[in-house]
Amino acid sequence: MDLSYLWFWIVGVLFVGYFVLDGFDFGVGMSLPFLGKDDISRRQVINTIGPVWDLNETWLIVAGACLFAAFPEWYATLFSGFYLALLLILLSLILRGVSFEYRHRGASEKWKRRFDTLIVIGSVLPALLWGVAVANIVQGVPLDADHNFTGSLLTLLNPYGLLGGVTLVLVFFTHGLYFVALKTDGQVHTDAKRLATKAGVVTVVVAAAFLIWTIVMAASKGAPALGFAIAAAAIAAVALIASILANLRDKQGWAFTFGVLTVAFAVLTLWFSLFPNVMPSTTDPAGTLTIENASSTPYTLTIMTWAAFIFLPLVLLYQGWTYWVFRKRVTRSFIEKAAASAH
Q1: Distance from CA of residue 52 to its chain's centroid?
Q2: Is residue 275 domain-resident?
Q3: Mean local confidence (pLDDT), 79-106
Q4: Domain that holds residue 274
Q5: Is residue 50 part of a domain?
Q6: pLDDT in tens, 278-321
Q7: CA angle, 236 as apex, 234 and 239 as ends, to 5°?
Q8: Three-state secondary structure along the chain?
Q9: Which regions span the lipid bilayer (predicted)?
Q10: Residue 284 lies in a domain
Q11: Per-residue pLDDT tens over the stretch 105-116
Q12: What's the structural domain count of the chain?
């Protein structure tokens, strides 16, 4: 296989990892207004992702770095054309990270509520904008013959892009609720399980509309990997329904696992629909970026392949070990004891 094609799929897998991992902790952040009946409950929710949220975000850095090195033309067009949307994502992530660290620095309820609000905003906005951005990459954007984006932020806010954003928000929200239910006890666990069922039903309807639209659009463009896109979309749909059923049976481990499969195969559906392009042009066909005309030199890709072969397994082992160490439930009694000892 040509290394440029290999790296197209490696970058896709890295974004799958990012959306799966940061996706559920975005969902946890979104759940705060619904599950945080008091400060103990809110701390219980936040502590489910406390040891891992920053580690999850490193997948974005790795994916972005690999995109820059393997496909510099794609990276340049994406980050210049989608500059404002990506800047908003970055600012949201910064506010979210700061809020996790500073909410417990003040004793007043007002202080904590302000940072809780920023956590919610910093969870919803990146999910929405990532959905809009990825949907527009798949659909195509106005590019001239020099691969320059000729639209604006409003260009990205088209019906398909907005549906992609709403879909990702709902999928992440449901995914996060499964994780909260898996990692907590008491009222928070009960409320998360109940809300996950309701959110899951809405997500099924919206996600189905988005995936069907994606497949129809890919078919109209004669996508070479259409069969794989249809198969991935079907697996994502079945996994989403299975996650709801597992949640109803109080099988939170299985619900979360099926949630992981839902996110993974939804992203793969978009990747198969995009192949072999990386950024189609809706105005000038000469402006379309493909795997071949956007990739780095074979020498660069060879070095990257060896680096990935050596270091990626180490990263996966470290992340797996981290989740194993912090695998226990975050109980309400533990939070209450911690709060009492702090006073």
Answers
A1: 15
A2: yes
A3: 89
A4: 3-279+309-342
A5: yes
A6: 999 988 888 899 999 899 999 999 999 999 888 888 888 988 89
A7: 105
A8: CCHHHHHHHHHHHHHHHHHHHHHHHHHHHHCHHHHCCCHHHHHHHHHCCCCCHHHHHHHHHHHHHHHHHHCHHHHHHHHHHCHHHHHHHHHHHHHHHHHHHHHHHCCCHHHHHHHHHHHHHHHHHHHHHHHHHHHHHHHCECECCCCCECCCHHHHCCHHHHHHHHHHHHHHHHHHHHHHHHHECHHHHHHHHHHHHHHHHHHHHHHHHHHHHHHHHHHHCCCCCHHHHHHHHHHHHHHHHHHHHHHHCCCHHHHHHHHHHHHHHHHHHHHHHHCCEEECECCCHHHCEEHHHHCCCHHHHHHHHHHHHHHHHHHHHHHHHHHHHCCCCECHHHHHHHHHHHC
A9: 6-32, 77-98, 118-139, 159-180, 201-219, 225-246, 253-274, 303-326
A10: no
A11: 777 788 888 899
A12: 1
Please choose, from the candidates 125, 129, 63, the residue with its C-alpha nearest in 3D space to the C-alpha of residue 99: 125
Q: What residue type is 129 in one-letter code?
A: L
Dihedral over alpha carbons 7, 12, 13, 19 (to 10 degrees):
150
> Is residue 196 within 8 Å of residue 249, measured between CB atoms?
no
CA distance 334 to 211: 42
- Contacting residues for 154 by C-beta, under 8 A, at least 6 apart: none
Instruction: Name the one residue in this structure whose structure tokens are 């896109």.
Output: 229
